[in-house]
Each structure stands twice: as C-alpha cells, then as structure tokens.
What does this fold into?
Amino acid sequence: MSSVIDADGHVLMEAADGWLDYFDADEAAQMQQLILGNRRHWYSREGLSAAEAQRALRERCKGEGGWDAAARLRVMDEEGIDVAVLFATELGLALDAYSPGVCRGYNRWLADYCATDPNRLRGVALLPLDDSDAACRELERSVTEHGFVGFFMKGSVGDLTCDARHFDPLYSEAERLGVPLLIHVPHGVKGVLEQRFGYDFLRSHVVHPFAGMLGCLDAIFGGIFERFARLRVGILEAQVGWLPWFVARMDEQHEEYSTRPGFETELRKPPSAYLDEGRLFLSCDADERYLAFAANEAFTKHTQGEDLILWASDYPHSDAIYPGAVRTLTERGDLKPDQLRKLLGANAQRLFKL
It folds into this structure.
C-alpha cells in the first residue's frame, strides 16, 4: 500500500504553552479574549482564567498531539499514518477572517510545530481572507518559507461565497504556487440557522454536509474550475454519502435551467464532467455508513467516487476515532484493496502534490 495520509488532522495552538508569544501585545489580547469567549464548541468556561480555559481545551482532546508535535508523531506511528495535513481548530472556527498579523503569528507557530518532522507534518495556512493582497503575500510566505501544502477557508467569508471574484487573485496565486484551496466547515448558513432557530448542537451539524454541497456547487457552478484551469479544491469534514445524489441533482438542474434566460452559468459542460479533470476531492470518515456507496458510484465513464475521496482523521478532536482510525477503515469489509489505496493515500498525494 502507498503512504497513509491523514488529509485533515487538527492542531490546537490555543492549547499550547506560550502560544500568545507569537502575536504582538494587542493581537495576543484579542486572541485570548476570543478563546475565552468562544464557549459553545467546548464546555462552559464562564469566569474561567486563561490557565483554566487552556486546561479545559486540553481535556476535550484525545491526547496531546494537537499541541505537542512529538506526541503527534507517536500517535501517527501507533496508527500507521505516514503524513498528517494539519488545520487550525478554534482559530479555524471562530472568525471568517483574521488580520495579517494574526495569520503570520499562527503560521509561524504551525511552522515550528511541523519543523519537528517536516516530511510528516504538513501545515495548511491561515490567511487574511478579507484582504486579497495580504492573503496572497501570506500564502506565498507560507508555501515558500514554511513549506505549507495549501490554505483553508470556510465555505463563506462574511457575505462572500468561495466563488466570489474577490478571491480570484488568491486563487491565481495558489495556481502559481501549486497548492490547493481547502474548504473546511463551518459555513455562514450555520449563523443563519442559529439566528433563526437558536443554537442546537445537533442542528448545527447539519451544516457539515450542507457546507460540502455548497462547496461543490460554488466550485463548479460558480466557475472556479473554469477560471482557474489548474486549481485543485478539497472539501473537508463534510462526509461523502450525499455526493452521488448531489452530483446527479446538479446535472439535472444544469440540463433543465442552463439554457433559460437569466440562468446562464460559466459552465462549458455538465457539472459531473468537471470531476473528470481530477481537481475536486472530498474527505471521508472511516466509519461512514454510506462511504462504499459513494466510492462505488460511477459519476462518469471515467470517474468513480473512489477517485475523489480521501480519508481524514479529525484527530485529536473528541469525536475522532482514536485509537484505531486506519484500522476502522481497512477492516470495514466493503472497500476493495485498490479503493483503500486511493482513499488512504493516493488521492491525497494528488490533492496536495506530496
């Protein structure tokens, strides 16, 4: 079997000792307040000190690998993982965009974390997405100086979806650097749900597959693949059981509406045909009930689901499978050896160019 690649692991800078030292004084104060104020994703920390909040963050995790790189490498050895691609946690969840200084500080911390073994620990950049020029500069720095393998964004940034022309300079720079756009939950729809119906943990998780659907829709119907002929796109933490239905739905809607006045798109071919370009990838969980259904789907004559799907651990989050994530996937019994080879490593190698 080829190398096993975890396409979406997480780090917790905010649980590490000395993490605020990576920011200037004003930014450090803002980040500390952000973490102290963002209680919903963990458990109530009303009135906790910074030290107590850090302890609460750590207690919610499955081990120390999120903030201790040596511990992460031991877990990877134990699980049989060769390479882990690493995303932010609360800094990825809390705000849609951060200042250039905050992004530089986070990316420096992640680079130091990955430096423990840069061949196995591969960072994903946090960018100041509301400032296109600054985002381009930070992406170049992250790739050329830190060796990062991509950048991530939510499916929406403020009032902008990922196909907005605001991001075109950034996507052009990503093409030049040869790194992918990585769309990671949550999405602005989550805020709409909460504003209308109130916060509910299970309801909020409907946003995960919905964010994946919107990411596919925006990348294809929004013209990202048309405008950027070499850009690769990964959609993370949305599962994949919905994918066969949704691709069929996009094809049906394109056939029905694309020739009507006012419904024109940039598409030159049916949505499913863009899958043949090999530039769209989605992550799966090891224990998804409908994973084999999606992997065996023939989307076109040339592309099956197994060509689009890559495995991600979500470690060290509390709902991640640990220990035994890789074993859970390989022993589920409904995936062929070649499919496992693709899901566990070959597809991630194509997405990240590892």
